[in-house]
Amino acid sequence: MSEEKKEKKTLTEDELNQKIAEETRKTLDEFAQKTVKDKLGELSEEMKINLDEKLKDALKAMKPDLELEKAKEKADEFKTPAEFLNAVIKAKAIEIPNKTIDPRLTFITASGEFKTAGHMVEGEDSQGGFLVPEVFKADLQQIALENSIVRPNGATVIPPIKTDSVKIPYVADASHASNVFGGCLAYWTAEKGPKTSSKPTFGQMELTPHKLVGLTYLSHELRDDSAIALVPLIKNMFGSTIGYYEDDAFLNGTGAGQPLGILNCNCLKTVFRNTVNQVYLEDIAEMYACMLPSSHKYAFWVVNPGVIPSLIQMGTGNAAAASGKNMIWISSDMGATKGIPGTILGRPFLISEKMPAFGAQGDIGYFDFRFYLIFDRQPITMDFSSHVAFTTDEDCWRFVLRVAGQCWPQSTLTPKNAGAPVTTISPFVVLTAATS
């Protein structure tokens, strides 16, 4: 052949994901426009204009922020977190004469505006803080996520989008006593029998992000003499700290200035315990029965460390401890030399000090975390300043996270044939402190 065949390019995983995202956005754009076009003939002129404006706003929100994409490309040029952090230190250190900023930290937009590399935040000036590049953000959070309960165990996470809040529609299904999905009915009827219409009930919730921050100071001596040690210091101290307090809010948050935690959501199902300051088989059995039936294969038990002794000593028969009882969680053949089981009634359990103290409501819970929504408005960002503590020769590091969270069911669900002890069910079940 006179012409050489062009070598076929093999796409990287990132390039393939980008092409898939672009094609998806294109398809959604075309589908949305076609749908509106088909319906325009049925609408008034005023409604046409209104719909067209809403469509444009929706499509605009779906499109990627080109500046964020370009910033990410620049930030990804750093090979290690240490290399990135050292570049930030040099860029912000005022004592370096005629300093130049590492070009990987900056880029110029099409309009000539100066931007810092990494993900942008609202209100950042041209010489403002540098953010943790996405490739290092995951590395920074790795330790935190290993110790978290809610996020890594099935919570529904909404990725960052450019909005101050996100509205989530849901089906308002609170009872199956007479219908399902908040009003849907199906009838058995004879030939030519009458039919009654029905419809579901919908609701809408709004997730508004809250800000979680951390602040620390580093002496110039530590900065200059042990720059490499700065990376594990940052990872261990603030990766874990941010993750710890975020997870605590997902479990215990009040919703006032912080996420609404599972233990304070309206859909929480509470089960009376058999005996104060104890956890017995009767309690476990009733909690299991009150779980949403479809959630059993996804649910986790979460217990305060103080609950473990009761589980180890849990026996058959009456709840009261009796000599010679048969152990049912730790079987007699296991003894005290082998590890404790990894499940309760076949489902995994997690131990967390964030759960309420032993004997209090919520010291043991049975949760399907898929029903907890997390809106990551702004992943962890990191900023550095040598000005804040100038007189004491210290650098200041600031960490900021903006996140929202809450359960999406608005109430427990009454089953069709409710009866004691299962009068209501829920994807979130806990033991109360009281016996009745």
SSE layout and pairings?
Layout: H1 13-40, H2 45-62, H3 66-75, H4 81-92, E1 106-108, E2 114-116, H5 134-146, E3 156-158, E4 166-171, E5 202-207, E6 210-219, H6 220-225, H7 230-252, E7 269-271, H8 281-289, E8 300-303, H9 308-312, E9 343-344, E10 347-351, E11 364-367, E12 372-389, E13 394-407, E14 428-431
Parallel strand pairs: 3-12, 7-14, 8-10
Antiparallel strand pairs: 1-2, 4-5, 6-13, 8-11, 9-10, 11-14, 12-13
Walk me through what this model shows.
Strands 7-14-11-8-10-9 form a six-stranded mixed sheet, with helices on one face. Strands 3-12-13-6 form a four-stranded mixed sheet. The chain has a two-stranded antiparallel ribbon with strand order 1-2. The protein has two domains: 65-131, no CATH class; 154-187 and 205-436. It has nine helices and 14 strands. With 436 residues, the chain is of the alpha+beta class. 28% of the residues lie in helices and 19% in strands. The longest helix has 28 residues, at 13-40. The N and C termini lie far apart (88 Å).
